[in-house]
Every structure is written in C-alpha cells, then in structure tokens.
Write a structure and sequence with these properties.
Elements lengths: L6 E7 L4 H14 L6 E5 L2 E8 L2 E8 L4 E6 L5 H6 L4 E4 L11 H16 L4 E2 L7 E4 L8 E8 L4 E8 L2 E8 L3 E3 L1
Length: about 180
Amino acid sequence: MSENQNKWYVLRAISGKEAKVKEYIEAEIKNTSLGEYVSQVLIPTEKVAQVRNGKRIIKERSYLPGYILVEANLVGEVAHQLRSTPNVIGFLGGMDNPTPLRQSEINRILGTVDELQEAADNIDIPYLVGDTVKVTSGPFSGFSGDIEGIDKDKKKLKVMVKIFGRKTPLELDFMQVEKE
C-alpha cells in the first residue's frame, strides 16, 4: 500500500465523545488489521486560557466539536468498521461514498490548530472598557473603579478609582480585580 492512497476523512461523532472514539479507533488500529489502512486519528483541539477567581486556567477544548479527522485508505470494509465505531454517527459527505477533504482544507484545519496551540497565551478577557471592578489585592484593595483601558499584551487594566474625592488612574493586573 502506498502512502499517497491515504486521504483525510471527517467522522461525525456524538459531541463530547470525540476522545472516546479516538481511543477506540486507536485500540482497533493496534489490535486488528485496521492499522494497515488507517494512519492517523486527530481531534482538532485548541488551548484556551481563562481567568477564574483570580487564577489563570488553561483548558483544552475541541476546535471542531463533534468531528474527528481520520487519515485512511477506505478500501473494503474499512469504511464500515470506522462507521460502526461506538459513538460515531457516520462520515461527513455521505454514508455510501465518503468524500475526502481537499489538501487545502487539511492544511487550513491543521494550520489553524497549530496556530491556536501556539497562541495559548491569549486569554479570554472577561472585562470590557466601562465595566465597574473591585480591587481585590494590593494597596488599593477594597476600592472600586471603572475600567478606562485594557492592555492585552501586558495583561493590565487601567482603572479609574476615586480616592479622597479624586479620580486616580491605577494600572492593575487582571488577577488583582474582580467584576462587581
């Protein structure tokens, strides 16, 4: 079997069960002759950082929920074996004759996934300009103010706090404030 007969196909799975389907197919590849025809099984995921309760949490979530990419040579019963995997709905593009993805689509999907994993430092910023926040740590703990600006690169907020009757600008870290 030559390598260029393998093409990328999209399996539709029950959303949230992608990891179980991948695990099952990989076990089948090791234990049966499916390994001769299936070379890769991928779940497109991205890493997302969020700020919760003042702590930075990095989560991995599915970039295309409900879809699994499979690089395979669909000859004989291979398509049927993949389709009959538990939690699999079927192939994207038709049950009888699955349509392979074009190379440009694969490059875009895999490129986007790589790009998203490299950009794992991007944080979902739960604050907007104009929001009222309360300072939770530092010398101004307990004071409230309005957000005047957000610096995503430095992960800082410019907050206008009223101290002794005057508005004073503070530059605070995302972790030093919470929404009111």
